[in-house]
Amino acid sequence: MTHPTISRRTVLSALGASLLPAAGHAADAPHAWRSSYAPYNGPLQAPLESGPLKVQGRWPAGLRGTLYRVGPARRALGGVAMDHWFDGDGMVQAFRFEGGASAAVVSHRGALLATPKLTTEEAAGRLLYSGFATTLANSPPLNGPDTLNPANINLLPLPGSQELFALWEAGSALALDPQTLQASGFKAWSPETQGAPFSAHPRTAPDGTVWNFGYVPGSGKLLVYEIAPDGRLRRQQVLDAPQADMVHDFAITGRHLVFLLMPLRFSGQPGVGAPLAHYRWDAQAPLVVLLVDKADFRVQRFEVPATGLFHLANAWEEGGTVQVRFVAQPDILGTLRQLNVDSARSLAVQSTQWTQLTLAPATGQARMEAPGLANVEFPRIHPARQGLATRFTTLLARSPGMDARVHGYDGVLTLQGDTPRPYTYGQGWIAEEHVYVPASPTAPEGRGWVLGTAYHWPTERTTLSVFDAQAVDAGPVARIALPYGLPLGLHGQFVPA
Predict the structure, then answer these.
(1) d(CA 199, CA 250)
(2) Is residue 300 within 8 Å of residue 366, measured between CB atoms?
(3) For a Cys-Cys bond, which of 83, 204, 329, 374 suits 308, CB 3.0-4.6 Å?
(4) Given this model, what pLDDT does residue 100 score?
């Protein structure tokens, strides 16, 4: 008796993997990044749905909840393509960890976000709108920043209202169904802030209060939001910030908001073409630090030697000082310009530096130093210790052995005080942001797990790994190998069960 031959692609499609790359194709190093996006180009497709996934190793009994991740995905439609990593349409991933005490049930769901931008371009049959770094000819007129909002940078869960939002740098928060991942429209925190920028890096204080900001390049202003745990806007305030032409992240303490303003000047017109082409570095200007009092929004200004940056880890009050930890990106323009998905990495960009900043409000003095930890990014801390002193940080790290032609990072490390504990995935891997998940709400700092995804570009597959936070250097305690590759994303958030 003979059986009909069923192709590998047919089998995997039946499992919900309809966006897989062609069987037998393997990426080479210069095109490692491009390979992760190729399956998601073209018309909008049904969400990915994995079903139960096999766990390799031992899944931690206390790790239950959902890891949400978001990032750019679709880069091409109708023969028109976006070149830059930041410009793809947003796609949300949900890794769900369920089951009882005896066994975990792990599944994955991924969905492109049907933003107004995406649905308009679907109807047109091609990409229409310019992005942050990609200018498309004959782009239609804009009705505001949300016309081109791809919702592709970060996520904001609000446990108090059971809401989930996908965030972009320059537009409104996009509301999502936490289960189906279906988009339901942009959030207006108040009539006055409808359509106003809502940054992709809000900070949630230990009491559940959400602080965030928005900016428009060239405006010299910052819009600050204070949001209650249930999603109600408490306060909004506009601050003067003359050097706020690109502000990706900020930090909070118990008393203050902390903004690090780079001397990155914008000379273009907002909404016209790709903004990146209109930025220049002012070598004569300092890094301006704004320390903003939460009570009355009074601002104290500090200046330190200039550096670029994307991400802050944390800030806190200590002995009359404000301690700030961040990753310095000295050549930020060079970094931004080389993040074209289709191109190989350039070695000309200066390495990142883990950096410590000490502010003394009583004297107006500031000191910045780099303890020597380089080639790291995407810092994450205990989620309930925003604004409190932290001694435990999770970062991505690039090893000396990573292929020089490939963008990004190939490992993860934990920084316990000043002691790094690194783990390197090995040849052919690109690691994505890893998050720290405490063992319980009251667990001591550093107890719990480090959780993250990595893409293996030779086989074009994604793996989810779980590490004991105290021993990341010992390797994963559990791994989930997906039957497909996911587009290389940006940020994620873990929501406990």
Answers:
(1) 10
(2) no
(3) 329
(4) 65
**pLDDT class for 181, splitting at 50, 70, 90?**
very high
Domains and CATH numbers, the chain: 8-496 (2.130.10.10)
Question: CB neighbours (10 Å) of residue 196?
Answer: 21
User: What number of other Cβ atoms are within 10 A of residue 15's Cβ?
Assistant: 14
Contacts of residue 24, Cβ cutoff 8 Å, sequence gap at least 6? none
Pairing state of beta strands 279-281 and 264-266? antiparallel
Structural element, H or E, at residue 55: strand 55-57
The pTM assigned to this predicted structure is 0.93
Element (H, E) at 332: helix 332-337
Instruction: Read off the tokens for 106.
Output: 């792990």
What b-and-e string marks burial along 79-105, b requiring 16 or more CB atoms within 10 Å of the CB? Answer: ebbbbbbbbbbbbbbbbbbebeeeebe
Q: Residue 138 is encoded by which pair of tokens? A: 């004959």
- The enclosing H or E element of 294 equals none
Question: What dihedral do alpha carbons 13, 15, 18, 20 form, nearest 10°?
Answer: -90
* Cα-trace Rg, the chain: 22
Query: Taking residues 139-154, what's their average pLDDT?
Result: 92
Cβ(409)–Cβ(398) below 8 Å: yes
The 10s digit of each residue's pLDDT in 53-97 is: 999 999 999 999 999 999 999 999 999 999 999 999 999 999 999
Look at the alpha carbons of 443, 444, 448, 454 in this order and tell me if their dihedral is positive or negative: positive
- The pLDDT of residue 9 is 38
pLDDT range class, residue 20, cuts 50, 70, 90: very low
Instruction: Label residue 346 by pLDDT band (50, 70, 90).
Output: confident
Among the listed residues 139, 191, 200, 192, the one whose alpha carbon sits nearest the alpha carbon of residue 172:
200
- Round to whole Å and give the CA distance between 476 and 228: 37
Instruction: Report how far residue 94's alpha carbon sits from residue 14's, in angstroms, rounded to the nearest whole number.
Output: 19
Task: For residue 168, give the nearest of 121, 126, 131 by alpha carbon.
Answer: 131
Phi and psi torsions of 336, nearest 5°: -60, -40
